Amino acid sequence: MSLSDLQKKVEAGDFAVTGEIGPPKGVNVDKCMEEAEKYLKDTCTAVNVTDNQSSVMRFGSLAGCRMLIDRGLEPVLQMVCRDRNSIALQSDALSAYGLGIRNVLAITGDHQSLGDHPQAAGVFDLDSVSLLRTLSLLEQGKDASGGELDGVPTFFKGAVVTPCSDPIEPQLIKMEKKIEAGAQFFQTQAVYDIKQFETFMKKVEQFKVPVLAGQVILKSVGMARFMNANVAGVQVPETLIQELKKDKEATKSGKTGAAICADFLKEAKAMCQGAHLMTLGWDHIVPDIIAGAELQ
Amino acid sequence: MLVSEMKPHEEVLTLLKGSDNVYLVGCNGCAEVCQTGGPEVAAELADKLQKDGKVIAGTTNIDFLCNKVLAGTRLIRDIDSINKADALLVLSCGIGVQVVASVVDMPVFPAANTKSMGGAPGLWPGEEKCGQCGNCLLGYTGGICPITGCAKSLVNGQCGGTTDDGDCEVENDRPCTWAQIYQRLKTVNRLDLLKNFMEPRDKSALLPNVATRKTLYWAVDQDVSEPAATEGCE
Ligand code: SF4
User: Fold this and answer.
1) Model pTM?
2) Is any atom of ligand 1 closer than 6 Å to the C-beta of B151?
3) Mean pLDDT of the region A266-289
4) In testing the pocket of ligand 1, which one of B144, B155, B156, B162 has its CB within 8 Å of the most ligand atoms?
5) What span, in angstroms and rounded, lies between the C-alpha atoms of A219 and A223?
6) Do A114 and B195 touch (CB under 8 A)?
7) How far, in whole angstroms, is CA A250 from its chain's centroid?
8) CA dist B151 to A159, B31, B134, B154, Å?
9) Whose CA is nearest to atom 4 of ligand 1?
10) Deepest in the core among A21, A176, B5, B216, taking most CB within 10 A?
11) Secondary structure of residue A76 in the 3-state scheme
């Protein structure tokens, strides 16, 4: 019943960095695995594998997680509630344990109509809160119907929260529900304004649960503007957009995005227990971020 | 017709925790037929609640609670007694509960569960829709239905997709149902209800009663001593 490195680290009060990979649509997984090994293995404590992110059908999270283990990385299994009913979610959680996966991130999931299979059924038998509770039940040796398990798994259960949501109260209420249901750590939605993040962290201090500040690496001016217009609870300040505008080459190579992220984390590291880096394929800039934020 | 059955009395008492003064609203339509509404059932429930220590601020029985105009005009007449109450308890299908919640700014709780008719339509003259989920949770959601309103039928609060304007991530031209529920519970000062963990929905309650799945010939062949066709209405 060994604890995951991520759990050990955040529970010891150390600053933990998690990365994220999104498997491809298709079976050519080698490239993203190689990059993860090259850039994330020595820089991140664990790496999330997304679960049909944005409702776009892809190579699966469970297999992706096991492949990371085979390369010596610790995975975080993302589980969304859109594609599987409570039987399949529980079965996959048991399978994940069997494959050596300990970190599980419970998410409700985007609606299927937002992805490339709008004709598909949206299940939502469970939601993020009840999935966490179900994982907790499994850890107590029971399934969701009260049946006995033959062999009991343990997980390090995570959830997400949006620090810049307005109003913030529904987020806080749901965060509390998630904790009561078993959430042991949180990864946040992307946050760029350190003041806003500080205010948020003050509000959630009372919950005494580790929070990893979410960072989506800014790749271009267009991307920043797109997120401002379309992604709920994400606001890229105009000053950062100007920053991205300044030196086109530096922005293109990822230098600017890495610097913006490193600057944020330098300040944020005193406020929270870790960072979650969503590089959207730009794993190669993670070492720069870690060095820039003086995290190692 | 919408088929409903009374919630277990303990559940009603849990919902009414903290509301000592209760106003009853009953429906004389489908609910009366199902014995979840109508004057007799309302009086019986009032009795029971008084024995449990509740004060009954008043009772109004309305012919068709799904008719919002009718419900509004009838409730206005007794607004003084209603204002004395801490909460309204509604004896009807889910639509009736939603109608009452939309005309009175007070905590509203359902006394009944609306059961699946397996495809048979109910009476929906207004905007309120009832998913006939079999386990009415309007008492926790300020009388706004997340089963029919939320694009994912979520029961534990809003997803991460609610837009910055408070709209649904799926249909950007309408408010997120959970954002509305939050606002409404805030208005009636019952945000505590939002903190309740809601069990995953019991999908077995969504199965139509057996009779609706059998064919006409099956019905003709049945032994009439087993009146299966009325199942779900008792
Ligand atoms: S935005 Fe609101 S209504 Fe839309 S799916 Fe999410 S919780 Fe449901």
Assistant:
1) 0.91
2) yes
3) 96
4) B162
5) 6
6) no
7) 27
8) 21, 28, 19, 8
9) B168
10) A21
11) strand
Give the list of residues 6+ apart from residue A271 with CB closer than 8 angstroms, or none: A197, A198, A201, A213
Nearest by CB to A174, from B151, B157, B200: name it.
B157
Write out the two tokens for A15.
Answer: 């600053």
User: Which residues in chain B have Cβ-Cβ distances shorter than 8 Å to A82?
Assistant: 152
**What's the whole-number average pLDDT of chain A?**
96
Does any CB of chain B come closer than 8 Å to the CB of residue A191? Answer: no
Chain B, residues 191-230, CB within 8 A of chain A, namely: 191, 194-195, 197-201, 203
The backbone region for A75, taken as left when phi is positive above 0, alpha when psi lies in -120 to 50, beta otherwise, is: beta
DSSP labels for A167-215? S-HHHHHHHHHHHHHT--EEEEEE---HHHHHHHHHHHGGG---EEEEE
CA distance A122 to chain B (A): 7
Q: What is the ipTM of this complex?
A: 0.91
Q: Which tens digit of pLDDT belongs to each residue from A146-175?
A: 999 999 999 999 999 999 999 999 999 999
- Domains along the sequence of chain A with CATH: 5-292 (3.20.20.220)
- Residue environment code for A120-153, b if the CB has 16+ CB neighbours within 10 A, otherwise e: eebbbbbbbbbbbbbbbbbbeeebbeeeeeeeeb
Rounded distance between C-alpha atoms, residue B91 and residue B36, angstroms: 6
Closest partner residue to A124 among B152, B158, B169, by Cβ?
A: B152
State pLDDT tens for residues A38-51. Answer: 999 999 999 999 99
Nearest to A228, CA basis, from A285, A283, A190: A190
Q: Which residue has the tokens 């922005």?
A: A251
B156 and A125 within 8 Å at the Cβ level: the answer is no
Q: Which of A34, A36, A38 is CA-nearest to residue A19?
A: A36
Cα–Cα distance measured from residue A216 to residue A236, given in angstroms and rounded to the nearest whole number: 10
Secondary structure (3-state) at B213: helix
Q: Which of B159, B173, B184 to mutate to test the pocket of ligand 1 (most atoms within 8 A of CB)?
A: B159
* Contact: A130, B164; criterion CB under 8 Å: no
- Map out the domains of chain B with their CATH numbers: 3-202 (3.40.50)
**Do the beta carbons of residue B102 and residue B149 sit within 8 Å?**
no
